Amino acid sequence: MRCENCDEELTDGEAHFAFDEPYCEECFDNQFTYCCRCDTVVSRSDITHYSDDGDPYCNDCWDEDYDDDAPNNPNVYDEDRDLIIHLSRSWLQGNNEYRRLIIINENDHHLKEIRSKVGYTYRPLYVFGLIDRDEYQISASKNIIDEVKEFVLLNFTGVKVNEGVGTNRLGLSLSLRENERKEIISLIKKITSLKEPALVVNQ
Question: SS3 for 65?
Answer without folding.
Answer: coil
